Structures are given as C-alpha cells and as structure tokens.
Amino acid sequence: MTNNVNTKQLIACQQCDALYSRPELKQGQKVKCAQCDSTIIERKVDSTDRSFFWSLAGIIFLVPAILLPIMGVTLVGQYHHASLLDCILVLIDRGFFMIASLVFLFAIAVPTVRLFGAFYITYSFKFNKLKPSLLSFFRAYHYLEHWTMLNVFMLGIIVSMYKLLDDTELSVNMGLFAFAFWLVSSTMASSALDQDYIWQTLENEFVD
Amino acid sequence: MSLLIKTAKQENLALCPKCQRVNVLQSQPQHCVRCKGLFYQRKPNSLQYALAWNIVALLAFIPANLYPIMIIYSLGIGEPSTILSGIGQFVDYGLYPIAAIIFTASIIVPLLKIIGLFLLVYRVHTGVRLRPDKHSRFYHMLEFLGPWSMLDVFVVALLVAVVELGFVTSVAAGPAINYFALTVIFTMLAANSFDPRLLWDKTSD
User: Fold this and answer.
1) What are the pLDDT digits (tens) for B111-162?
2) Cys staple from B50: which of A35, A70, B141, B194, with CB 3.0 to 4.6 Å?
C-alpha cells in the first residue's frame, strides 16, 4: 500500500522512527514526536538572515580568537601569555602530537569549516545562487555536527583560570573576548539554520 | 499509545539520517532520493560497533586515571598530578564548584556513558522493552554530554601553553592525557554508532 504514498508528505522521527504526515508550519512553530517527545522539524524565524549575519560575525572574530593571547601569567617579575594557536604549537614542541591535533581539530578546524559552511549555504540562499552541488555540500555539513567543542574549550579556559588564580598573577587578554564572541556567533549561526527548510527548498529546486 | 503510531520501518519506509527525507525502502543500503547519500534503514551492526567502542573506551580509561595527567615544575622540581589528585587540590583550596565541574566532566560523565551504553546495548539485545521513552531520553543525554569530557584535555593544553616561565615554573602534560582523550573519543564514537530506534523497534511489532 505504501509504494504509491507520496513520501514527500511524510516525516519520521529520528529517535524512534515514528511516522507522521507533514503538517504546514508557520515561522516559530515546531513538530514534536508524540511518542518520544523529541523535536522532529522546526520552522525557525528568519533563519537565513540570522544564520547569515551570525556566521559573518563569526568569520570576523575567527582570526583574533585564534591569534590573540587569551590569558597571561606573571610570577616573580616574569610574564608569559598564550593564544589558542600557541597552545597547539607548544604541544607540538613538547611532543604531544595527538593532543595538539585534537585541540586543532575540535577547537579550530571543525568550527571553522562549520562556520564557512553555514556562511556559504546562507549566502547562496540569501542571494538566490542555488546550485545542485549544494545538496552534497549540505549533506557533508552534517557529518561534523557532534565534533565542535568551542563551548567545552571556553569552560576549559575558565577552569584553568581558577587553577592559576592561586599562585600566580593572572591577566586576561583580548583573545578571551574574541574567543567568547566567536563561540557565541558560531553557535548561533548553526542553531539558527533551518535544516528542514533548506532541504525542502533544495529538493523542490533540483530533485524532480 | 504505540498502537496508533506506526513506524517508518513497519510501512516499509526508511528515513535518511542525513537529510531526514522519508524514502521508500528499496535496498540495503540505498541512495536517498533527495541528498543522494548512501544509507541503511538502521545503522548496520549498531550493537557490535557500540559495544566494541565501549570496551576500548573502558580500557583506555584505566591508564587515563593511573598515570599523571600533568606535571607541575617549580624551581626545577616536578610534581606529577593525576585527574583525581587535581580534583583533590581544588577541594583543598575550597573551590568546590570547580572541583565538582571537573569531577563531573572527567570521572562521572565518561563512566556514566560507558555503563549507560552497555546497559542500552544489553536492553536492545535481550529484547525486553520496558520503558523505551525513558531509555531514549537517557541516550539523548549521553549523546549531549559526550564532548564535555574533553574539558580536562583542554585545561591541560592551556596550562602547558600559558605557564611557561622557564626555571621558575612550568607545566608539562603527562601520559594520561593521551589515554583520556582517547577515552572521550571512543565513548563519542560508541554513542554515535548506537541507533536509538532499536530501542523502540520490537515494541510495536
């Protein structure tokens, strides 16, 4: 019986596989699964605009967040500070290649790729430059979903500050603020993105 | 409740995990009509993969706690500290909230993830479905908590880079940091390879 059902009109829950017919959604509404209570689709408000400008802001803060020193310590007259990039370089220098590459991946590479990905997708939508290649591009964008750890790194900065506070004189540098802004804008850029809307538009455009 | 709701599998349909498009099941694996990605109706060998990643995560967690995670040098004398002794230090200083955060992120969360996932795999394997909604929510929580265990790795990376005052004081990373990072990554891979829909599957047919 199902083979002649229009599957375009169906949605299914990712968590429990429950099947529903697709309702019409207004901006700000979302569909929750009746069985497991997880959100299935959500029509986000001004998704393209918001995600576009947040990712633009993220790209602006990207370079200062990586290069500017995050914090510094002073002890008996000596001062030393480090940026996100310094962390990686020092770890390579000391021979901790695995940790260096993990910090690079989770705190620089993946967030950067996600940010530029969100920017490219929303740019194409905003200025009507849709291409069939966006289908595979947006699919690739999902692979990195779980592997951005900017928020964890931010908590790491706070914890290490407390660790240093006791026996050294701690100074906070501009890099910390740049990093915080980078974290906020890249989180907002990816959470403002309305994936269901993007997929549907791409499907109507390029899939017959 | 579950009598009214049909699953995509029962209707011979399959959900593309990447673009959430409902497809008519044709073959395993098949290409999604929308995003052209290759996918299966359920993650193949989900339980075996989850179990395997889980076991290596547990194995890596042992040296992660036994070896020192960092060595603090002051005036040329090195003082190694493990994850637990680092937490003890915060307790000594009276910084209880920070001690609680680190204890949660580096001990409770990895253990909870490993034990929890063993439990979920066991549940699916035995086929006893008592409260799938509860288990599903539990899985969701495990997935969300995963990356937060990297906290200790980032803290050590920062301390090594910032505290570099030559002979006066410096911090070096210890061997445990590699094992700990591996534990976190293995638990994340374990959670990723588990398919939560298996928790619901046999209840309704």
Assistant:
1) 999 999 998 888 888 877 677 788 888 888 888 888 888 888 999 888 888 8
2) B194
Looking at the structure, tell me whether residues A29 and A105 fall in a common domain.
Answer: no
User: Which amino acid is located at B140 in the chain?
Assistant: H
Nearest to B6 among A19, A80, A156 (CB): A19
Residues A30 and A120 reside in one and the same domain? no
In a domain? residue A135: yes
Structurally, chain A folds into a number of domains equal to 2
Residues of A in contact with B148 (CB under 8 A): 152, 155
Whether chain A has a CB inside 8 Å of the CB on B20: the answer is yes
């993830």: which residue's tokens?
B113
Residue span of the structural domain in which A34 resides: 7-43
A100 Cβ neighbours under 8 A, 6+ residues apart: A88, A91, A92, B157
Instruction: Give the three-class secondary structure for B10.
Output: coil
Distances (CA, A) of B99 to A46, B87, B175: 41, 5, 22
Give yes or no: residues A172 and A151 share one domain: yes
Q: Is B7 on the interface with A (CB under 8 A)?
A: yes
Say yes or no: A181 and A154 in one domain.
Answer: yes
Identify whether the C-beta of residue B35 lies closer than 8 Å to the C-beta of residue A136. yes
pTM (2 decimals)?
Answer: 0.87
| Interatomic CA distance for residues B75 and B14, integer angstroms | 64
Strands B70-74 and B38-39, by their bridges, are unpaired
**pLDDT above 90: residue B62:** yes
User: Of A17, A34, A149, which is closest to B200 when you measure between CB atoms?
Assistant: A17
Distance of CA A105 to the CA centre of its chain: 13
